[in-house]
Specification:
two-stranded antiparallel ribbon, eight-stranded antiparallel beta sheet, alpha+beta
Length: 327
């Protein structure tokens, strides 16, 4: 939104205040054409009637919740929390990949880490990542808008008074996933393409399960830089948890269909398998701790897959169907 020239010449305080104004007003989100970013920006606005925070923005996802839903009782009063869950459920069904393309900047309540939070979630501050979150569901489709191809199904599930997310899709152990990634990264063709970069980029949530991670941040949020720090983070994740308890759920991919040979981005959800500690928790559940993304552009050369690269698209033997809950 602000030119490089302006940022260099304007006083830092003025520049910072303008950036915050653009962000908090939602103007930056509108400029990015990202419905998810717009929804998160709306969380910074104040509403006289709290439910209006959902009623006033649901149309960007083609959603109809609460009293606006088909056949709804217009006399019923829905709370903001109830409407957020309804909108979240709509996102899980219509856009399962997009629904998880965010990170938490503060710990989410157990069971709710599937639900994008207007106050605790952000889209990772990476311009290429933001590009793939663009969606204009309520407008005529534009060829430059990313098209989503999901590999899993997500839906809400009530368990012991908490709304969890049920998943059904291809999963694998992060340890095995990392082995394939490491092998591909060493291929001669890729060495020249991803210098000082990474085949897979990891974006972590702020959550207690990661408190011992060298990259953990209690306050604020910055992405882990590419290169050696991303490599170190991936290695730490392979060693930090008991065998096979850290899973990768392949959500699917997003990419533009209007461009020939345009790469798509695959999105995996990092899920940590846990056992319930008391009767109020499910006996077995998964805790979301972040997401990982990789580009299809690094998997093929001349239209042909590199050795083992096709495993990154969700096929066996790396991936196997799993059903469970996370939050």
């Amino acid at each position: 939104m602000l030119t490089t020239e302006f940022k260099e010449q304007a006083p830092p305080v003025l520049c910072k205040s303008i950036i915050e104004l653009l962000r908090d007003s939602g103007m930056q989100a509108l400029a990015e054409d990202s419905a998810l970013t717009t929804y998160l920006a709306a969380g910074r606005r104040k509403f006289t009637n709290p439910p209006d925070a959902i009623y006033g923005i649901q149309q960007i996802f083609n959603a109809r919740v609460g009293i606006t839903a088909a056949g709804a009782d217009h006399r019923k009063v829905w709370s903001l929390e109830q409407l957020e869950i309804q909108l979240g459920s709509h996102l899980l069904y219509e856009h399962p990949v997009l629904s998880q393309m965010h990170v938490f900047t503060a710990p989410a309540t157990l069971g709710s880490a599937w639900l994008v939070s207007r106050t605790k979630s952000i889209i990772p501050p990476n311009q290429r990542f933001v590009l793939f979150t663009k969606t204009r569901a309520a407008r005529d489709h534009n060829p430059d808008d990313p098209v989503e191809v999901s590999r899993c199904t997500l839906s809400i599930k009530w368990m012991k008074g908490t709304v969890w997310c049920r998943f059904d899709g291809p999963c694998c152990a992060f340890v095995e996933f990392h082995k394939v990634v490491s092998q591909l990264s060493c291929h001669e063709v890729l060495k020249g393409q991803i210098i000082d970069a990474n085949l897979v980029t990891i974006y972590l949530d702020v959550t207690p399960e990661l408190s011992k991670c060298p990259e953990y941040q209690k306050t604020g949020y910055t992405i882990v830089p590419r290169g050696k720090r991303q490599d170190g983070l991936a290695q730490w994740l392979t060693e930090a948890f008991a065998a096979n308890t850290l899973r990768v759920l392949l959500l699917g991919r997003r990419g533009r269909t209007g461009q020939i040979n345009e790469p798509t981005v695959f999105v995996g959800l990092l899920l940590l398998q846990r056992q319930g500690k008391n009767s109020s928790q499910p006996s077995l559940y998964h805790r979301r701790i972040g997401i990982c993304v990789w580009s299809s552009g690094h998997l093929t050369v001349g239209g042909f897959y590199l050795p083992n690269a096709k495993l990154m698209t969700g096929i066996a033997p790396l991936w196997k169907r799993e059903i469970g809950i996370f939050g």
